[in-house]
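Bench notes, bay 3.
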Amino acid sequence: MKTYGSLQRDPSRGKIAGVCAGVAEYFGMEIWLVRMLTLTGFFLLAPPFFVIGYIAGWFILEKKPQGLSTNVAGDKYVTPSRRDKAKGKGWHNESEQNHEKVVVKSKVWQAGEPPKQAFSDIKQRFAKNESRLRKMETYVTSSEFQLNRELNKL
């Protein structure tokens, strides 16, 4: 089984302490599946073992930093709350937002987006980039651009 990044608990996406969310991210699985496996193990296998294991994970695993999150490929990217704060600081931050990778899940239990949703997201990104490119082309081919260019030469 392939692992992604380091094993940390993720309280921002967790229900109790974020242990299941951290394990799910580490193994690239859906959080709901890890929670269901934990509950199944608790009720069917060995309740004391799972309770002690969860509490041990709570105290042993480091807490994931709040500002950064990782996607399934283990790449760090800015969370939506930080993205909203960064808006208005120029075009550079806006282009950084578009560098998030779209991860398509190939199996039901893997984390990522379903193929239809991933296609829709990519289509929206291309439409947004195309409109930005059209605006740039319109400005560069306008007489205002040429006038500003001539004035800057003086």
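Next record in the batch:
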Amino acid sequence: MNYVNVFICGGILCAVGQLLIDLTNWTPARILTGYVVAGVLLQAVGVYQYVVDWGGAGATVPLLGFGYSLARGVAKAVAEKGALGILTGGLTATSAGIAAAVVFGLIAAVLVKPGYKR
């Protein structure tokens, strides 16, 4: 049943993103940024943890999950280090994902020969 919940949760988040693309004139960058900010805000008010508990990876892998991780990392760091945690907590919590994106982006850039579309 967990796989079904993950699929449904991720599918709903993707469907909302697709509806935003189809029904608004927002750019994809604005939608992606909005998803990250929404994840931070939903975690800040305590709602997103329930979504994560139900949807698992379907809630933590999309960009809402990145915002959730940022907010959770900041809250943990502030509890441990005080005000300095505001600056360090988000990056500490998401550093593995950021590093993986950089490394895999570099590998893709080295392996794929870019070309112009004609």
